[in-house]
């Protein structure tokens, strides 16, 4: 055989040890052995939920969509999938807090994994929190359009990260949006107790003609989707302020919906820094919230906490002081998320509140109950039917946030309904069906090291996604 380099032999079959050329059968056997080895490695990666066609440093644990059974006579609705994901702002990362994470913390690595994960799950609408201001301009607004998304972003001027909503341009067109700065809102005269710099974003997305044409056999009166995303106050003693922010959310959703013409289903998502047994979750999901003893103790005790002078709402600071405060704020926020902050201690079982504190709390809860809007966490409706092994309070998954010192559920996808719905009546009462849930990991399935971690997750939060059918 004459090769291009002029050699008269095919060196592929030459065995240096024996000084002989392999026979065609021996060459084929070696090829088959290599193929089987690659196949075994591929199957091993797939069994661990990893993508064998993606570089090792950019792998993540791929989770299945757990389908909700509806029976043979189920009428199909307009398909819609919603993701919420706290992507971990790069400006919040302190390497000493992630001793095991190594290169997984670097943005040039994390960004690829985050993007690959979003591309893989391919949600119609993505609601993202902790999006770095600089990376929105340099990365997200450049990369997501390559996968068919349009984006909108909002952040508070003194904060280095904000929230973003991305939607498939083929399916939706943006009708309007509303930016929300929680510190600037005082519904029913209820002022914030401290400066939080938290924000939210609401958008009205109308179905495109192309989307309707693709689903022309499905009848619906819906015009589109109103969806919001929020990132609430992180402070361990911030229960009162988070509850006040939930009042703002309820008021703003109604206000925004009143400006949009048409029949839009309404949803909101985000990192609420609140667990299912907390007061914020209660006032969002119950039309007439009534606090139990533990909840009342938690929120009344939070009114007694005295924040630092730097959080004074009425005081002006220089640019240098603002930057210094932002850096310290972000460090404390991250330390709290990781369970390393000394404030992160158990809440008191008892608290001897004053009459003023009780009135402050009662007024806030009453104003929340006055708003004719309640919401239902979509995971609480049916996740227990497809993954009954690890259901926590209110039928919610165990966790969406992970560190070696603390883990729990902080993130939600809420559906707005004017009246409370039980799991049995939710779908018929709201003309919506839940088709599937992105599976959430259990405590037992997580390794005893912090996230992000190479080959596992690119953030300290775990993405959540619901597949819906709208009628």
Automatic annotation (TrEMBL):
Stretch list, region Disordered: 312-356
Keywords assigned by UniProt? Answer: Exonuclease, Hydrolase, Nuclease
Record InterPro entries = CCR4/nocturin_mRNA_transcr, Endo/exonu/phosph_ase_sf, Endo/exonuclease/phosphatase
Acidic residues bias locations: 319-330
Q: Where is the Endonuclease/exonuclease/phosphatase domain?
A: 83-461
Q: Where is the composition biased (Basic and acidic residues)?
A: 347-356
Q: Which Pfam families match?
A: Exo_endo_phos
Listed GO molecular functions? Answer: poly(A)-specific ribonuclease activity
Q: Which family does it belong to?
A: Belongs to the CCR4/nocturin family.
Task: Spell out the protein name for this chain.
Answer: RNA exonuclease NGL2
* Organism, as annotated: Candida glabrata (Yeast)
